[in-house]
């Protein structure tokens, strides 16, 4: 397993991983692909390789107030090997003085990892 920071050379493999995940991730590779490419360029993103790109994590640093994980995805064929945890641990290793938070709609996964729930996210509507 190799974890490294994302570069544009990883783009094709990363979008292939996202696309195989299906409709829940469709806007990232379909209707908002250009926007997501820009988001990747301005994010802290790690990719995980095990022969091929099989996982990634995208997050943003809030100027030292916290690192917020927006996206965490591991290929279905590689799940159950603690790759998601390894990606999050890499963030903590690289930013040891900064709190790391996850923005999630899959809370059961993070609860299973032993992470504490510290808040809730609300969508602001007009």
TrEMBL record:
CDD domains: NAT_SF. SUPFAM superfamilies: Acyl-CoA N-acyltransferases (Nat). This is GNAT family N-acetyltransferase. Transmembrane segments: none annotated. Residues 1-126 form the N-acetyltransferase domain.
């Amino acid at each position: 397993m190799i974890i490294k920071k994302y570069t544009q050379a990883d783009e094709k493999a990363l979008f292939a991983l996202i696309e195989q995940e299906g409709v829940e991730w469709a806007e990232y590779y379909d209707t908002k692909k250009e926007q997501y490419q820009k988001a990747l360029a301005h994010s802290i993103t790690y990719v995980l390789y095990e022969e091929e790109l099989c996982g990634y994590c995208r997050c943003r640093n809030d100027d030292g107030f916290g690192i917020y994980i927006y996206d965490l995805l591991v290929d279905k064929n590689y799940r159950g090997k603690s790759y998601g945890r390894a990606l999050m641990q890499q963030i903590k290793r690289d930013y040891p003085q900064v709190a790391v938070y996850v923005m999630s709609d899959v809370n059961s996964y993070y609860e299973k990892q032993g992470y504490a729930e510290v808040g809730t996210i609300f969508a602001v509507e007009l």
